[in-house]
């Protein structure tokens, strides 16, 4: 009996260590921040109130990511398909980066956060472009978390642009087709300088990619939660990190 008892206790202790500690931190976490509208509706508020609350939650989750020394946090803030929403909502979503940076840029600078953006910047309204460009410039020498905002981002359009650029370079004799491989394709994407995401989180109970980082997510671990983005808490983020560290990543090989 005694022989069986002690290994059982040790095993429990081990499990409790695993449950409370995070030893394997993903380098790059990508989040599809979904459910702002439903969060607002549940409370009898207009949809834009959900986006405002979602914006404030971006700051909270950036702090957690920074504390866990995650290197890159890519957040899907506006897709190339989101232009189909009512004008008033699109206008508000285009104001959010400016509002977010007005309130939080001084803190982000102090916290050593580096702001970057992926997506088609040239199609954004001037005030949105200006706010983001200014923040990118002011944080360009920071060495902490990279907060990578996907704004007017669509993976298919990113892939189309990549194909066009490669074709142009081949046409101009700057590139030979024999040089085209996975690394070269990667070099033509918005994310060329970043590692692929290790962990993708999507909030709000939807289980789809919605045109987000289709190339880059080839070997990413996925984690879904029913929580709406404005209510996605530090506790849930830590749950996702704990789940991630239990995953066995084989990249198609064997352990
Ligand atoms: C999807 O939820 C969310 C968006 C389209 C916008 C996400 C933007 C933020 C969270 C704030 C961005 C912050 C910065 C810093 C730019 P939804 O509106 O589709 O929700 P629903 O599916 O419940 O309607």
UniProtKB/TrEMBL annotation:
Transmembrane segments: none annotated. Pfam families: Prenyltransf. PROSITE patterns: UPP_SYNTHASE. Binds 2 magnesium ions per subunit. Its EC number is 2.5.1.-. Its cofactor is Mg(2+). InterPro entries: UPP_synth-like (IPR001441), UPP_synth-like_CS (IPR018520), UPP_synth-like_sf (IPR036424). Mg(2+) binds at residues 34, 221. It is an enzyme of class 2 (transferase). One of its GO terms (biological process) is polyprenol biosynthetic process. One of its GO terms (cellular component) is cytosol. Substrate binds at residues 35-39, 47, 51, 79-81, 83, 85, 202, 208-210. GO terms for molecular function: ditrans,polycis-undecaprenyl-diphosphate synthase [(2E,6E)-farnesyl-diphosphate specific] activity; magnesium ion binding; manganese ion binding. The active site is at 34, 82 (proton acceptor). Keywords: Magnesium, Metal-binding, Transferase. Catalyzes the condensation of isopentenyl diphosphate (IPP) with allylic pyrophosphates generating different type of terpenoids. PANTHER family: DEHYDRODOLICHYL DIPHOSPHATE SYNTHASE 2, DEHYDRODOLICHYL DIPHOSPHATE SYNTHASE FAMILY MEMBER. Belongs to the UPP synthase family. Homodimer. This is Isoprenyl transferase. It comes from Amphibacillus xylanus (strain ATCC 51415 / DSM 6626 / JCM 7361 / LMG 17667 / NBRC 15112 / Ep01).
């Amino acid at each position: 009996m005694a022989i069986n008892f002690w290994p059982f206790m040790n095993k429990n202790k081990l499990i409790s260590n695993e449950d409370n500690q995070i030893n394997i931190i993903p380098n790059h976490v990508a989040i599809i921040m979904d459910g702002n509208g439903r969060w607002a509706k549940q409370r009898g508020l207009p949809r834009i109130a959900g986006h405002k609350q979602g914006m404030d939650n971006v700051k909270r989750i950036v702090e957690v990511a920074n504390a866990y020394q995650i290197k890159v946090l890519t957040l899907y803030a506006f897709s190339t398909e989101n232009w189909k929403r009512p004008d008033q909502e699109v206008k508000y979503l285009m104001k959010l980066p400016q509002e977010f940076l007005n309130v939080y840029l001084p803190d982000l600078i102090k916290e050593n956060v580096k702001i970057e953006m992926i997506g088609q910047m040239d199609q954004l309204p001037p005030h949105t472009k200006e706010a983001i460009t200014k923040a990118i410039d002011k944080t360009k020498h920071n060495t902490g978390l990279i907060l990578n905002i996907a704004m007017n981002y669509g993976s298919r359009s990113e892939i189309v642009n990549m194909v066009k650029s490669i074709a142009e370079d081949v046409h101009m004799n700057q590139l030979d087709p024999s040089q085209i491989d996975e690394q070269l394709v990667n070099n033509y994407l918005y994310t060329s300088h970043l590692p692929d995401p290790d962990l993708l989180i999507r909030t709000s109970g939807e289980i789809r990619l919605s045109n987000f980082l289709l190339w880059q997510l080839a070997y990413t671990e996925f984690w879904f939660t029913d929580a709406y983005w404005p209510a996605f808490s530090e506790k849930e983020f830590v749950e996702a990190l704990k789940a991630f560290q239990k995953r066995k990543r084989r990249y198609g090989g064997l352990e």
